[in-house]
Amino acid sequence: MFPSLPGLPVWRRPAGTPTLGFIDGQVDLLVVGGGYQGLSAAYHAARLGLKVQVIEARGLGEGASGVNGGQVIPGLKHDPESLRQLLGEEAGQRLADFSAGTADSVFDLIRTEGLDVEHQRNGWILAAHTESALQAAVRRNRQWRMRGADVRLLNEAEIALLIGAQGYRGGWLDRRAGAVNPLALIFELARLATRSGAGLLLNEAVTDLQRRGSLWVASTDSGRTLLAKKVLVATNAYSGALIPGLAESLVWLHSFQIATAPLPSTLLDQVLPGGQPVSDSRRILVYYRRSPDGRLIVGGRGPMREPRSKEDWAHLERAMLRLFPALRDVAVTHRWFGRVAITPDYLPHLHEPAPGLLMVAGCQGRGIGLMTALGPNLAAYAASGDARVLPLPVTPLRPIPFHRFRRIGVAAHVAWYRLLDSLER
Prior knowledge:
Layout: E1 26-32, H1 36-47, E2 52-55, H2 64-67, E3 71-72, H3 80-87, H4 89-100, H5 102-113, E4 119-120, E5 124-128, H6 131-146, E6 151-154, H7 156-163, E7 170-174, E8 178-180, H8 182-195, E9 199-201, E10 206-212, E11 215-220, E12 225-233, E13 251-260, E14 278-280, E15 286-290, E16 296-301, H9 314-323, E17 332-342, E18 349-354, E19 357-361, H10 367-384, H11 406-423
Parallel strand pairs: 1-2, 1-12, 2-9, 5-14, 12-19
Antiparallel strand pairs: 3-8, 4-8, 5-7, 6-7, 10-11, 11-12, 13-16, 13-17, 14-15, 15-16, 18-19
Helix pairs in contact: 1-8, 1-10, 3-4, 5-10
GO molecular function: oxidoreductase activity
Protein name: FAD-binding oxidoreductase
Domain FAD dependent oxidoreductase: 28-379
């Protein structure tokens, strides 16, 4: 039987550890959830002089923040023109401007604070496996080049040279992007937050939130209580019943990953010789990168249930060999999985269902950059109450109709899309 979260990722933990602590009495901001969003907001709020407490139900990095693929991608699933159509000219432009700089936020923080996080910033490739996918890349390239972004199209020969895999019609290179050790980043964000004065409590769940006058009263499963002027619920794919309707507004999926043994030197020039992380354009996303110690890491969607055996990762091994047949004799040494959340419109959603109760959910594969970059904005809003500092519009919390049946529908769609992908060459 394979273990449940966090699984067996290959990521190194940094040497430094955050200081744990609980602030008795009253705080300015309670953060529920210790992922990128929660810890970034806590760090920036503490720097603004707010008294901040973070409470995380698990250990650091045991959710999606520690078991993801480490790709740091700016932008969103929707391109700038689509954002303006969906949200209106002003709100769409504001979100497009913000999303353009999300990778900058991560890499600038690593550099300015000297964080112990392995990283590289030589771009990210969206690989187009069909002509229609290539035309979508052409449209994306046009929109971002008009905004001055450092991006370009790749033809069939160029993408084969950079990736080492055959069969792609072309692709799109976004040089603003890169990759990090995601587990190291979450530990270093926690260290920054606690060093700045935030309290951090791990392996303890907030089980109840009640409004009492102008304050929020939080209770935990260990019997603690805390008063807070404002609360940020940063639980995303791990949202439960704490906020009615939040979990039901999201579709969660399992992201499965495998890692090989370190590649022999004879294969390093054949497997991702350009060093960029890659996302495939297939309906069922496949993404891959080289790790700092020279392994190939491949990720993609897995079963809706928790894994039962190695066979639940077999589809990723098949994808790996389809892309890189030379790896047939290279062992797969690590297998792990985590939960991610998407929204029906593929946009991040910001809600404030009651005064002083804030939440952002829905990463759509952009979580590291998006949620880390949101930290300063959420902190500024907690300090000032001025919604103009928020790059996202505040929207009502709307549960998805028939949400209890969503897993069945998603599983059916995944199976159907995987069949369609297998028929396309």
